[in-house]
Every structure is written in C-alpha cells, then in structure tokens.
Design brief:
Blueprint (H helix, E strand, L loop, with lengths): L18 E8 L2 E4 L4 H6 L4 H7 L9 E5 L8 E5 L1
Parallel strand pairs: 1-4
Antiparallel strand pairs: 1-2, 3-4
Organism: Nonomuraea corallina
Protein name: Leucyl aminopeptidase
Keywords: Aminopeptidase, Hydrolase, Protease
C-alpha cells in the first residue's frame, strides 16, 4: 500500500522510498519550493541545474525523476511542477 505524507521538516534524512518536491518555473530554470535549501545543498547546489538538464522547467503538470546516488537518504527524488 502506498502512503503519502506531507512534511515540512528537513528532507535530507527522511527514511522513505522517494522524496516528492514541488518546483516552480523561474527565469533561470526550475526553483525548488521554499524550505528546500538543505536538499539543494545535499546535491552540491546543483539540484535545479540537474533537473534543467533533463528538460524539467518546473511548469505546472511537469514531473521528473532523479536518482539521488546517496546525496540524501531517499534513493529517488521526484520533482513536480
């Protein structure tokens, strides 16, 4: 059974199968939701650039999956616009 929980705590150490993070479209590419700074830092400040390289802009209805390769506890990040 799939369980979805909304949480505003630091996502870097969540014990979960996937992190779902909201993004918005900006003039310089996708921008993570407020409070996602620790997540971006875990990706070496390159989270938005990584998603942008996949063609993800953060527009409504867009979805991108990005493996975390150990940057955070969850093995998969799902970005939603």
């Amino acid at each position: 059974m799939t369980t979805v929980r909304l949480n505003s705590a630091d996502p870097v150490s969540f014990d979960t199968d996937a992190l779902i993070v909201g993004f918005r479209s900006g003039p310089e590419g996708p921008r993570p939701a407020t409070g996602a700074e620790p997540l971006d830092a875990a990706f070496g400040g390159k989270l938005a650039a990584s998603l942008s390289s996949l063609g993800f802009a953060g527009k409504p209805g867009e979805i991108a999956k990005l493996p975390t390769f150990g940057s955070v506890s969850a093995p998969l990040l799902v970005a939603v616009g």
